[in-house]
Amino acid sequence: MADPKNKETDVTSVVKGKEISRRQFMTGVGGLGIGAIVGGLIGGAFLLPDQVIAIQASDGYLLVDTKKCAGCTSCMMACSLTHHGETNMSLSRIQITQDPFGKFPDDIGIAQCRQCPYPSCVEACPTGAMHVDKATGVRTVDAAKCVGCERCVNACPFTPSRTLWNFEEKHSQKCDLCKDTPFWDEDGGPDGKRACEEVCSMGAIKFTKELPVQSEDGYETDLRTGTVWDKLGFDGAPKSGGHLG
Amino acid sequence: MASGNGYSGKILKVDLTTGEFETIPTEKYKSWGGGHGMGSAIFFDLCTDKTIKGTDPKNVVTIMTSPLSGTLAPSVAGRCEVQGIGIQAYPTGWFTRSNFGGRFSTQLKFAGWDGIVLMGKSPKKVWLNIVNGDVKLQDATDLWGLNTRETQEEIWASVEPSKKDDDWVNLGTSRDSGRTTQRPAVLTAGPNAELYGPMAALVHDAGNGAGQGGFGGVFASKNLKAVSVLGSGGVAIADPKALMAARLWSNGYSFGGHHDDPVEYVGLTSFGSTPGRPLAPMQDTPEGVKSRPQGCVGCIRSCRGRTDTGEGNESQCVDFFWYDHHDVNANGKVTDASPRGADAIQLAGVNAFAVEAATLWIEQLYHQGILGKGKAIDSNLPFDKFGSGEWAEAFINCIITQTDIGKELCKGVAQAALAWGRLEIDTKSGILPLQEYGLPHHYDARTEVEWGYGSLIGERDINEHDFNWHVYWTPTIAGLFGVETAVSAQRLSEIFAKKMIPYNDPMAINYSDEGIYSESMAKTVAWHRHYTRFYKQSMAFCDWGWADFVNPYGPEHEGMTGIGENKFINAVIGGDMTFAEGMEIGRKIWNLDRAIWILQGRHRDIEKFAEYIYTTGAQPGTTTYEAPYTMPVFENNEWSYKSVAGRILDRQKSEDWKTLFFKVEGWDVKSGWPTRETLEKLDLANVADALEKVGKLGASA
């Protein structure tokens, strides 16, 4: 194990030729997270030369196109339904926030877990409850090991935190790409299906196995251009004669 | 953990007079399903004098969810039903209903409540704050004169003072009180709604409206401004796997299941519609404006939108249409006048249908030189700018401030006409399109009779498009484009006959000159009332998604209705209710409502349309959608689509039709009152007793 005090320097030093802050590294600016560099390798964290910890990348990521989202929150209900057997937005591992009076596209935000290449939620966990699943790379919680400290909730660099406190079952939880969905007949996970993606009637959520290019504001995802969406007029209404025109 | 299989288990009863709260166990009313059924049953029990006016403190108002609210049932989960004695209809404010979408019913379920019952009148102006099980009445003095947006933003800040942007907020004081990222869902009346009560709607978020009935005015009469609800709980589901499977099965019938390759369909439909269409933002968004489709909780078709200007957010259909054609007539195309008109009614909390009828009428009066500056009906509204956003805003403002012609219009459109001495003359010619009970003409009783009859035998414009998309819009649009309909009239008749359990009448949708007075049409209207009372108003299936009769993605265009509804109901609440069983509950609810109207004074002799329906064929520009009006007819032994525009109703034949209808329903044909036999078969002996007590029980045949 690398000396934690030197962890930041050691991690930075792996990214050769780039001077980037720890926060930038954690958010994977420019897609350069250590996961990307070592992506595709099976197994958990492992050591590089010079005692640097590397963390296995996730086998998949949710892409969301905020401009395509209709704010119906079906994804939130599907998430809680398949994981917990009830529809409960407060237990959903994807959150849709919206301002009814806001101006498109800023009226809706989609807060999905990015399966960070360097997951600060995993780093923060003192018990290993929040961990990287060896089979899939999914960052997920072993509820049996969770002591409820909520360091993972606070460690998530995004707002709202993608890790959430399950106040009914008293453990933290987060998006596991539907790896464990006891209330769904389909197989989930990176090689299966994702409930939010399946129910989204706008096609605003897609799954990819490639680490998306991302900024501090999110993924640059366009699931509209080149699809039937181009003809629907949302990118600029056509001249209209109204309902009788 | 959520428990109760769709139901939260309790209904909040608020005595506004004393400020006390009680809990009604939902179990007591579960046999009524939810929503409207429960609301009617609760009203029947708690409003002991049904003859009072809607502004009487003894009026009982219910705001009810369905067990499917807040679940994955598609285009179901977002609706909410409001009921009570209304103040909009003329001359009698019937016990009535209105319904709105968005996320209010969801949050109410998540907070642990199946509904709210409002009784009495608060001594002070208040708003009701519900956060999970914590319920309180708070001072609304500073909110009273605010518009609907201002009110909601103030309440959001009040309920979640520590909320920053989209972050999680803890509800309550302990770590495990529950958390949410969501804003409170607020249902509010407009500014000083007592000034325009009969025209006053209730609004939630930017554009969800309970528009009909004057419930904004009823709220104001109780000194109640708004209800806010926020919850961190959930809805228990009897069979989560079945619910998820049903939702994914329904994808096959929706754009969502085909969004990479949707069907082109000439006409209008419901569940299978493209998002943001039809009759929604795309038609009324000014050129170049960018937007997204936006939907209520759980919706699969998202019928309205939000724009990059922020104008017209969440408005759709008549929210825009009351003004868009005036905009186009004046400006050659849709401009920002249309969304400004929509926003004017949303912010003010004014019923779109009422202002639509009023605008058509006063435009005619203006052109006839009867209304205007210095005219018999004096008005300083800027008619030289008719069709502009400025005119729309000035018009709505005059209603809500009782100024200019708003001094009379604030009391209701029929009431204004009465005050100006024009009610009889203008409803005879039809330039004042108030079709029944002083209520605005929506679809035409002369042509699309299931709409007109249903509104007449009921108590308000039905606003239920189950037949309308397929028997009017689709053949009419196809005709305008000069193309064949995807579904022939023959095939359409087969689909409807198959799905309209228990009648299954092959002539159900025969809108010929003979068919509209037939027993088949009586069964059609009965079916429609029963279906909507249970499935749409009690279980909350949204009118814009259901019924799904004809679906472009379905096998031979057949939609999900008859199968789909109960897939979702049974997955959520458990059991194996059949479609027919649901229809029977709907018949029971319909009979209870009928009894309430009878206690209010209903008799077949007063169930008549406005005079123009019997005397005048539709004149273009006076009502809505009247030219052309192409419908399925069975004539000369075959089915076809034919324009029936310009038709009038035969007075005697429509009276004879009422007799047929009462027979189908098991009501006394002389009065239109349910009989004891009919009511007792529906387990409504107590209702029969109540009618008998006042001498209004129908005589058995």
Can you summarize this structure?
The complex is a heterodimer of chains A (245) and B (701). Chain A has 245 residues and is an alpha+beta fold. Chain A is built from 7 helices and 13 strands.
Question: How is this structure best described in words?
Answer:
The complex is a heterodimer of chains A (245) and B (701). Chain A has helices at 7-14, 22-27, 34-38, 74-84, 120-124, 151-155, 195-199, and strands spanning 46-48, 52-54, 61-64, 86-87, 95-98, 108-111, 130-132, 139-141, 164-166, 171-173, 205-208, 214-215, 218-219. Chain A is α+β, with helices and mostly antiparallel strands. In chain A, the strands form 6 sheets. Chain A has a two-stranded antiparallel ribbon with strand order 1-2. In chain A, strands 3-11 form a two-stranded antiparallel sheet. Chain A has a two-stranded antiparallel ribbon with strand order 5-6. In chain A, a hairpin with a 6-residue loop joins strand 7 and strand 8. The longest helix of chain A has 11 residues, at 74-84. Mean pLDDT of chain A is 82; it is low at 1-45. Chain B has 23 helices and 23 strands. In chain B, a hairpin with a 2-residue loop joins strand 7 and strand 8. In chain B, helix 1 runs parallel beside helix 19 (579-599), helix 7 runs parallel beside helix 9 (352-367) and helix 14 crosses helix 17 (519-536). Chain B is globular and about 75 Å long. Chain B starts with 9 loop residues before the first strand and ends in an 8-residue tail after the last helix. At the A-B interface, helix 4, strand 4, strand 6 and helix 7 of A face helix 3, strand 10, strand 15, helix 5 and helix 6 of B.
Relative helix content of chain B: 25-40%
Please give the largest β-sheet of chain A. Answer: 2 strands, antiparallel
Strand adjacency order, main sheet of chain B: 2-1-6-3-4-5
Structural class of chain B: alpha+beta
**Got a strand count of chain A?**
13
- Average per-residue pLDDT of chain B, rounded, comes to 95
- How many helices of chain B? 23
Residue fraction in strands of chain B: 5-15%
**Most extensive chain-chain interface:** A-B, 68 and 95 residues
Give the overall form of chain B: globular
- Name the beta content range of chain A: 15-25%
- Helix and strand content put the structural class of chain A at alpha+beta
Shape of chain A: elongated
C-alpha-based Rg of chain A, rounded: 19 Å
**Uncertain ranges of chain B:** none
Oligomer: heterodimer
According to DSSP, the number of beta strands of chain B is 23
Residue share in helices of chain A? Answer: 10-25%
- Overall mean pLDDT of chain A stands at 82
